[in-house]
Design brief:
The strands form 4 sheets. This protein has a 7-stranded mixed sheet with strand order 3-2-1-4-18-17-16, with helices on both faces. Helices cover about 30% and strands about 20% of the residues. It is an alpha/beta fold. The structure holds flavin-adenine dinucleotide and NADP nicotinamide-adenine-dinucleotide phosphate.
Length: about 450
């Protein structure tokens, strides 16, 4: 094994990138990791995706924050690879590039009227609620009574829950102040959640739907007719690995049988429906839905339109049907899957591994999995890096300080030490409102907190 320091650039400071940095430095002192982050703060979707009313989920940050004290690891936030630094420039300075950029683009329905005003990606709403600077200027008109959320995954459920809760219920969370004020003026009364398949095929998890069924000020409604079970669905519900699916189904069945409650808001789950068109009529949106039936064998059931339609008027629509990665110049990109093509994390070009290029997290495997899933995934890819390390570190690389290059370019980068100051300032700002923190929601405010300008 060579004694030369292995210089690694990690692109993205979400859980996948940080778990990779932790695994790389766990047993090797001859490694230096520079982490590049497009946003002005670290932690990716742990900070900007996890809902404000799920603070326990963000506890993982405590463990990951220990990386900031490791002299072998540096952070350069507010630096976008592909814009501020080219991939070729990184390749000239690092033996290893680990791409951990996640997936920012949301998948589209590709139906007429999808760009009608009032139709939003749910991730924009969640980013806005969470104070992500990318969405600080987005406006959501929450004044009308009806909202539609399309999709049956946990992002859709988070969106529905945040719309359903009152501003008071969210007050003592780290919700962004702008979102808190807007939600206080919300006129929403009814939220429809649309799934193209049935309750047995829903992608959301038990804990999340249970939480929705227990909201004190909002009724959850399931149509008993949607709970009918075909033989293929029966098989899906009673397979060896169906425990979670069956628990969800049984919960939904019990909700479908319970009496309606008289409260201000309701969430209605509509299964077996696909949006086919969105149109605006006199300032009100309407979503045209085709009623589906499922075809295919157990585990392979797909939704097919029946030719029967219904239309639901609504004021605002959110789309939560998954994500896609974005290409970065200089890195192979699989347009069809929206990921960086790879074999076990080694990025490939035309099927052949590209030495020194790796992918972890969502950009490696697609937009599925919880925060913890990324730990095992990144650790496995780091094993591949360690296997390749001797060959990779024999290449001569430019070890001039990254800070010099970034300063020469006038890029206002943010380090771990800067982040510690921002973190303390946010916690202090939250104190008066009894909030865990009051986030800065623009890059300018973050730099101002550090006494710097953009
Ligand atoms: C709305 C939402 C809520 C979620 N809630 C939960 C939850 O409650 N519990 C749970 O366990 N899981 C949750 N998940 C799933 C979890 O967030 C993901 O599994 C995880 O964040 C994926 O990690 P990642 O590091 O691949 O991507 P990300 O967390 O997205 O991190 C990628 C990082 O790379 C940065 N980046 C991108 N491109 C560049 C570039 N060119 N240069 C520099 N930096 C770049 C991004 O700014 C980002 O910070 C949620 C997901 C979403 C979308
Ligand atoms: N609280 C949490 O723990 C939490 C919160 C948020 C996210 N996450 C995790 O993050 C990951 C991503 O979540 P996600 O909700 O974005 O994705 P997801 O779990 O993959 O769910 C996507 C949903 O969109 C539906 N869909 C896809 N294309 C559609 C179309 N054209 N028309 C109608 N519906 C369509 C899918 O239906 P089909 O099944 O029919 O394809 C599915 O119901 C998941 O692993 C999730 O568990 C976790």
């Amino acid at each position: 094994m060579s004694n030369a320091i292995l210089r690694v650039a990690v692109i993205g400071s979400g859980p996948a990138g940080l778990f990779a940095a932790a695994a790389l430095t766990k047993n090797d002192n001859n490694v230096h990791v520079d982490i590049f982050e497009r946003l002005p703060t670290p932690y990716g979707l742990i900070r900007f995706g996890v809902a404000p009313d799920h603070p326990h989920t963000k506890n993982v940050i405590r463990r990951l924050s220990l990386l900031a004290d490791d002299p072998r690891i540096s952070l350069y936030a507010n630096v976008m690879v592909g814009r501020d630094l080219e991939v070729a420039e990184l390749a000239a300075r690092y033996h290893v590039l680990v791409f951990a950029g996640g997936m920012k683009e949301d998948r589209k329905l590709n139906i007429p009227g999808e760009s009608t005003p009032g139709v939003h990606p749910a991730i924009d709403f969640i980013g806005w609620v969470n104070g992500n600077p990318d969405y600080s200027d987005v406006a959501f008109d929450l004044s009308g009574p009806n909202a539609i959320v399309i999709g049956n995954g946990n992002v859709a459920l988070d969106t529905v829950r945040l719309l359903a809760k009152s501003a008071d219920e969210l007050a003592e969370t780290d919700i962004a102040d702008h979102a808190s004020r807007a939600l206080a003026g919300s006129g929403l009364q009814k939220i429809y959640l649309i799934g193209r398949r049935g309750p047995a095929q829903a992608a959301f998890t038990y804990r999340e739907i249970k939480e929705l069924s227990e909201l004190p000020n909002c009724d959850l409604v399931v149509n008993p007719a949607d709970m009918a079970v075909t033989s293929a669905t029966h098989e899906e519900l009673h397979g060896e690995r169906s425990v979670q699916r069956r628990r969800i189904f049984e919960l939904l069945e019990s909700i479908s049988n319970r009496p309606r409650r008289t409260v201000n808001k309701s969430i209605e789950l509509l299964f077996f429906r696909s949006p086919v068109e969105i149109h605006q009529d006199g300032g009100i949106n309407a979503v045209r839905l085709e009623i589906n039936r499922l075809d295919g064998s157990a585990g392979q059931q797909r939704a097919h339109g029946t030719g029967e339609f219904e239309t639901i008027p609504c004021n605002i629509v959110f789309r939560a049907i998954g994500f896609r990665g974005a290409a970065v110049t200089g890195v192979p990109y699989d347009e069809k899957r929206g990921i960086f093509p790879n074999i076990d994390g080694r990025i490939t070009r035309n099927g052949k591994c590209l030495p020194g290029y790796y992918a972890v997290g969502w950009i490696k495997r697609g937009p599925v999995g919880l925060i913890g899933t990324n730990k095992a995934d990144s650790t496995a890819v780091v094993k591949r890096i360690i296997e390749d390390a001797d060959t990779l570190r024999s290449r001569n690389v430019d070890d001039a300080p990254m800070t010099d290059l970034l300063s020469r370019r006038g890029i206002p980068f943010i380090t771990f030490n800067d982040w510690k100051k921002i973190d303390e300032a946010e916690i202090e700002r939250g104190r008066s409102g009894n909030k865990p923190r009051e986030k800065f929601t623009t890059a300018a405010d973050i730099l101002a907190c550090l006494g710097r300008t953009q």
